[in-house]
Amino acid sequence: MESLREFFTNAELMPMLGDWAVKILLAIIIYLVGKWIARRVTAFVTRLMNSREADPTLVKFLSNVVYAILLTAVILAALDTLGLPVTSLVAVVGAAGLAIGLALKDSLGNFASGVMLVTFKPFSQGDFVEVAGISGKVEEVRIFSTVLTTPDNKQITIPNGLVYADAITNYTANDLRRIDLVFGVGYEDDLRKAREVLTRICAAHPLVLDEPGTNIFVLTLGESSVDFAVRPWAKTADYWTVWGDLLETAKAELEAAGCSIPFPQRDVHVHASNPLADMMKG
């Protein structure tokens, strides 16, 4: 006990303990105040991006990044106050981060692609797109993947790296779409009458737009038919309705007007032979 008493009453130890107490108190104050400032700065950045109507996914991601960077700086400042070798610690953390980054390079690539998708917005939630050979409605753009719902109600998750690296077709990006149809009539049919029928059914459909106008012309002279290209315009939401209605109505109206709708066919001629006669000729 006497030895312990002498240790704690040592003239050199007491100032050292007092100095460490002050450093610890300062480090705690720096951490608490710095954390408070980091939260306020992050909240300001979030409000600023929301006022600019930035994408919610991008807002959340950038807010987390800003807070993480500021909090890291606060922790390093607090450790530096304690007299710890912050430079060496940063080097160790950097080396560990590099190793982790190399191990998770695919995930980091998907993460970076997700940021690019959210930033440049080639599509939005609810759009019908074709990406990586898959067509579907965009349900969600996550940090590492994009979720699509196919027309037959299957949910497909695609890594963001594949989405951003491939061609993206957005079918619903524009309000209007052109419908490309092809109708074939026989070579013996009256082409003017066929054109009149096709023009009439397009003009009569309530969902076909007057502007831009419908374009109808002879596309090709096929092997068994003269093919008309019929290209009306409709609102994107009405695309498949107009497509189906025009196909059904055109067939009925063309046949009613005396036009045929030919299909590919071949004539096969069979020549009967008499084996006995062929042998005698030989």
Present the secondary structure layout.
Blueprint: H1 2-8, H2 13-51, H3 56-81, H4 86-103, H5 105-120, E1 128-131, E2 134-141, E3 145-149, E4 155-159, H6 160-165, E5 168-170, E6 176-178, E7 181-185, H7 191-204, E8 215-221, E9 226-231, E10 233-235, H8 239-256, H9 275-281
Helix pairs in contact: 2-3, 7-8
Oligomer: single chain
By CATH reckoning, the class of the largest domain would read Mainly Alpha
> Strand pairing plus helix content: what structural class?
alpha+beta
Could you state the order of secondary-structure elements as H and E? HHHHHEEEEHEEEHEEEHH
Portion of residues within helices:
40-55%
How many domain regions?
3
Helix segment count? 9
**CA(first)-CA(last) distance:** 135 Å
Main sheet overview:
5 strands, antiparallel
Q: How much strand?
A: 15-25%
CATH-defined fold name of the largest domain = Helix Hairpins
The poorly predicted ranges are none
Task: Count all strands and give the number.
Answer: 10
> Which term fits the overall shape?
elongated
Rg of Cα set: 37 Å
Mean pLDDT: 81
Question: How would you describe this protein?
Answer:
The protein has 282 residues and is α+β, with helices and mostly antiparallel strands. The protein has a five-stranded antiparallel beta sheet. Helix 7 runs antiparallel to helix 8. The mean pLDDT is 81. The protein has helices spanning 2-8, 13-51, 56-81, 86-103, 105-120, 160-165, 191-204, 239-256, 275-281; strands at 128-131, 134-141, 145-149, 155-159, 168-170, 176-178, 181-185, 215-221, 226-231, 233-235. The protein folds into three domains: 8-103, Helix Hairpins; 122-170, Roll (SH3 type barrels); 176-256, Alpha-Beta Plaits (2-Layer Sandwich).
